[in-house]
Amino acid sequence: MLLGDRVPTCLRHTVMNARNLPRFVSLALVLTALSASAQEQVLDPAAVRHRLFSPEQRLEASVSVGLPAREYLTAHYNLNAGLAYNFFNTLALEARAGYALSRHTGLARSISESFLAREDKKITDELEDMWEMNLHGVVGARWAPIYGKLSLLADETAHFQAYLWAGGGLASLRRQSVIQCNQVVNRDLGICDNRTDPNNSLSATQSFWRVDTRMAPVATGAVGFRFFLSNGHALRFELRDWVFTDEYRVNVERELWERGEESGTPAPNPGLTHLVQFDIGYSFIF
Amino acid sequence: MRPTAFLAVLLSATLATAQEETPAPPSETAPIPVKPELEPPETDVSAPAVPEPLDTQAPVAPSDAPLATAGEPELQPVSDPNAQRLVNGAPLHNPNVAVHVVQKKRFADEGRHEFTLYPVVAQVNGRFTDHAGSALHYTYHLQENFGLQVSSTYNWYSNESLFNLELIDKVREQAQAASALLLVWGAQAGVEVTPLYGKFAFYDNHLLQFSLVLNGGAGIGSTRVLVRPEVSNQVDGESFTVPARFGDTGTKFLGSVGGGFRVQFGDSMALRLEVRDLIYTARVDRVDGCNLQDFQKLEDARGSGQSFSQLGLTGSCQFQKFDGVDPKTRKNYREDIVLGKDLVSNPSSDVLNNLSFYGGFSILF
């Protein structure tokens, strides 16, 4: 039946509803088709027996990549390697070390360029949370009280542990200001480096933005899942927060910093910087 | 061969096959088997050479199929009688069983109604905005893995982020109005699928059933924009704190995708932990119904002291919100006209992602 003007409006709606409902239900069924067989098993006995692998009293090596979960002015891509010893199935001590590839976000670059040309702000405070983490090493405990099994669509069952991770260590930090340019090259274009092409920042080999570095204690915590693939192999997914104290200066004066002089005072209560990352990792349990 | 005898043979063979296919745990960590392997009954009947009719074939047992059908399992003797105590049907205290999860889903969802209250909905990706609110969802589980869902969210806190205010304060920069659009409430209809389910044990003592839920929907949401942050107003030597002022930017199309876990406690209660991305279109060309031309007229009239009601503004323009003096803070609302005009003078548009964490509990019936 074709829908047209010959069908009264009220009837047309009824017909459309009647026609669309089965389609909608069909679409819904298609959407869940993959899990249909699992559904069959939902109410059938589907035994899951023992731990696929018991890490207790075993050494474990892992690698992971961390991606930024949120970006404000900096972004980090964290490469880590770790070594752990599982005292129990539920408790392990892990040492992690790595290097974070970091950069300023587009927003930070945009701020730096526009602020260089701004004349109405001669005295200001540095922005918070501008420190970038590079080399770092931490030691922590992993507590995995939850062991579970997940039905994957049909007959496959994934074994996993859910865990909390907490620890601390040291990190090397670097901070490049987006406010203090020690040598303004072109104020209108917001250039503070030795680029050869004004429109191509990649042609620069030296930047004149103020740079600070330091080593600082870092604390880190994570919540994650570890899926056992087979004997000794596991995939890790975790949300990890790296925390360290912030440091920045307040009441910095443009005239002073542009002459290359020290300006401003350290912020009295700078707070903490959080780098929240989504980590994907692989572990091998010996 | 008699059909019953053949069926018995076939069942035995299937069970034996299922046991052989069960992957053995590593020898170092393998717990002592709780159930002895079953010996298939002796028979001199070989496997049939030709396929049998479907109605006489035994179903193929999955590799982890239960052994319950083969009779009562014989547990090995254990020294501690407590080890035999069943927790949710599983001998979790038996040292021979590292983790034993009950074999079937204990609670079926099909045909059930579920009301979920999320007391806390907190935005986790707020760069220019911060949202916190509550949500109420209703789900009708059309079938075990598929449900229809109606959801509503109200943000009792929505404001520009501290980060955005820091940019304004320190470098005189701020997000475009569209990028800092705030969601006040949203209402949606959609679907929810639960493609995966599982069970987990907390320290081998408590056994819980959970599902992975994925949902999506579409609807509308009410938005607003910050016109003026909280300021201090000095009048006749007195200082008043003037609360932040927001302007209505209308209802927008709202879509969402999300996912999370539903952990079930008993037959009628569940805990839900989800992340949901509310996606809404943002275009700011009116504030409190007033467009740029309206604001221009208001600004001109403000200078001349003319009454706003005679200006021939568009019908939607709520000029009263930009007129008068607040008796409590003595703030003259006409001063906000220029701020409203700034917001619409460069109409901006964006598609915003409001990624929020939802923590709530459900009642099923």
How would you describe this protein?
The complex is a heterodimer of chains A (286) and B (365). By secondary structure, chain A is of the alpha+beta class. Chain A has helices at residues 9-31, 36-42, 106-116, 254-258; strands at residues 58-68, 74-86, 91-104, 123-124, 131-152, 156-181, 209-230, 233-245, 249-250, 252-253, 265-266, 272-285. Chain A has one domain (59-285): Porin. Helix content of chain A is 16%, strand content 50%. Chain A has an 8-stranded antiparallel β-barrel with strand order 1-2-3-5-6-7-8-12. Chain A starts with 8 loop residues before the first helix and ends with a strand. Chain B is mostly beta strands and 365 residues long. Chain B folds into 2 domains: 3-74, no CATH class; 113-285 and 347-364, Porin, CATH 2.40.160. Chain B contains 4 helices and 10 strands, in the order H-E-E-E-H-E-E-E-E-E-E-H-H-E. An 8-stranded antiparallel beta barrel of chain B has the order 1-2-3-4-5-8-9-10. In chain B, strands 6-7 form a two-stranded antiparallel ribbon. Chains A and B meet through helix 1, helix 2, helix 3, strand 5 and strand 6 of A and helix 2 and strand 4 of B. Strand 5 (131-152) of chain A pairs antiparallel with strand 4 (182-202) of chain B.
